[in-house]
Amino acid sequence: MFKCSECYKKPIQQCNSCNGKLLCKVCSYNHLEEHQKLDKFVNFGPPIIKIPLDKISSLKVSLKEFICNIRKQKTDILRAASKTAYRIEELVRDSYEQLDKMINKYTELLKMNEFEGQDIEIIEELLSKNIRFKSPKFSNIKGVLTKNFKVNKVQDRKIDKDIIKLEYNLLIEGHTSDITSIAIMNKSQFFISGSLDKTLRIWSLPDKRQECILEGHSDCVKCIAITSDDNYAVSGSSDKTIIVWNLHKKKQELILEGHKDTISSVGIGKNNEIIVSGSDDKTIMIWNFSNRKCEAVLKGHTSFVKSIAISNDNKFIISGSWDKTIIIWNLYKKKQKTKLEAHLGHIDCVAITYDNQYIVSGSWDLTLRVWNLKKKCLETVLEGHSDRVIDIAVSKNCKILVTGSLDKTLRVWDLDMKIAVAVFENQDSFRCLAISNNNQFIIAGSEKCALGVWNIAERKIEFSFVNHTNYINSVEVVNNNQCASVSDNEMIIWDLEERKPIQYFPLYSVLAINRDGSFCITKLINENKIFQVWNIKEKQQEVLFQGHTDSISSIVFTNKNNFIVTGSNDKTIRLWSISNKNQEAIFQGHTNEVLILLITSNDQHIISGSRDKTIRVWDLFKKTQEAVLEGHSSSVYSIAISNNNEFIVSGSYNETVRVWNLLFKRQETVFIGHKGAVWSVAITSDNLFAVSSSRDKTVRVWNLEKKRIEILFNGHTDSVYDVMISNDNKYIISRADDKSVRIWNLIEKKQEFMLKSQFGNAYKADITNDGNFVVIGFTNKILTVFRLIDGKIELNINNIDNNRFNSFLSRNVNKIYLANGLGIATLNIIKRTIKIKMLFDMGFGIFFENCLFLEDRILPSIIYSHN
């Protein structure tokens, strides 16, 4: 404690002549008298606190944390303000709607010359009175914005990625958008990556971790270069600037401005005296590194300059452009020397071999071209890529060429033999690459934020850098000095002492759960062609199915739960056997993407709708196409099957609803009336009515017997995406883009209830089998259970840390399945309990047993319950 050295009162000064002795006011006078008696010089000064080095370090961490929390409060204030602004906007919108109704009402009267008896009161009121409004006024807005309080650090606190960075020097978030550029330092211990997320990041190859993040660009980072002494990095961006970074200090050194468009490529001369940049403004600029000025602007290209390279002898600049040409520039004279033409498409990348013998270029024409730099002519054409070539790297021994392409492959070429010697395949397109200085490894970045290191000799991936590539939803420090962090894509466990990941759990998206809860279907978040089937009772993966060549668009269980049917953007429908664990059949016939699949209740037929404008009927037993139903003039987005399996109703982008006889395979009725695409259709259980929803903001009820419109429901203010009908045919539930779910009374032909979210659209709505509850999922990751009997909210479910989850109905009317990326839980509506049903990864299950916070933080929980 800070005390006087004599009496332990609070000191006001110290004696610098006595090694900083602390003194209060009274003791200061006594101490002065002692100096005077001894005739010694006295030097008083303000008290200075000496803190041990370990406490200074902790103090700095605390100060940074204070600053971080203050900055977060600023962001929270803006968020709160936006909510208030939204409420005001909502009030204004509602008032405008009400006033517009009044205007329409009086405008209609204005057009009339003859009136009915019921109008007499209105007429008399108009003749004798005028309308006046009170001045518009909003209630006073008061805010608690800066009030704060201090809490002991031993108390629970909210941990996030910034706190982990400050306290443990650990970066758990990687790039969050496409990686566009990679440059390796000359000592090969580190490399730098740039991304569309506006950042540069420094990575340690030996430690396999991220070391630093460089922030400063206001738009996408497009290119990077590093000086030969590893002292500086240079980056170009879509913000039209070049930033020079001091790599020792890990900070911005200077900004070079002059280009008028995106800077696509940068290079540094071998003597580190010049920087060369190429831009979408069609120019190349030469910058003096020392005086930080532009020395020359090279003009000659007629389109974007996408790539530049500098020869090792500093004599030439090579530039590649979307004008399909390569230009060789004399660096000393700063003028064009030669133009090379042969490519049939845009040129995205150029490189020069280290011996200055060859230029290599990659293009949209799918080829690589090798040019003789001395002879200024084409040497050879390398073919093999099936999509545009994005990036090129040449090994330092000039023997190997590596290319990355949008065809999702890396190709290794022998420059002497002029052939491909290895092909590395990936799930995503490669955007950038570099070769290590020992010519043994390739470092490549992809469009999905992944960074991988590939072994050239062994023809395999060596390792991938583990970091979050999506927004991190939750972070928590747990047992044994470990940290768990979760994003929408994955959960990662980190060792805080060694600053590295120790466990990685991919997260799954649950696509379907059958009604008896015995099986569920999942896919990995970033994988749309492969799906897994899990045995929920046995708590294990049953089988993994793959075969589709494009994204799966629709997936359903058969009613007996022995098969799964999938429709895909690859135009096929596939039948999969759960028991035999194989693909049973491929149904081919659609000429465009399959958009929707349904199965008749007797499991006899598959009904599919497609972007090819047709509906097709497939025999599930014979595994053949039974009929093609044609009539729609645009994509078929929705289908419903009658309970007796005798007819189907379809909705299309062409604004019509059509009724088809399933027995005779023919069109029965066309309902016309919608003024926009029909997104959803449903049929009442008594097969008397069809209901449709549309982009025209309406819900329409059609009489199937009388073949006419029965009811037009207006109220939604944006496109209505889904409709469903309660089992007793009393209610219609509609979900729209206006952030509302509306319940319509089909018998009384009126709107019964409306549930509107302030902060997100409803992405899903279901009715429980007993018709008591509507279950609604909102994009703000809140699930609401809504009571139909009185229009009250029964429960609100959310994850404390905002992780994604979904809901599925079960045969038990009081039970709902809640699924997030880690597993499945069950919600009992009556008992108001949530229990874990299964976890997708056994390793996570073991970790879960020792980390109680996960149940509260990651699994859904009830945040509101109606008494």
Automatic annotation (TrEMBL):
SMART domains in the record: WD40
Domain of life: Eukaryota
Keyword Transmembrane annotated: no
Keyword terms, alphabetized: Repeat, WD repeat
Positions annotated as WD repeat: 172-205, 214-255, 256-297, 298-339, 340-374, 382-416, 545-586, 587-620, 629-662, 671-712, 713-746
UniProt keyword Lipid biosynthesis, yes or no: no
Name the UniProt record assigns to this protein: Uncharacterized protein
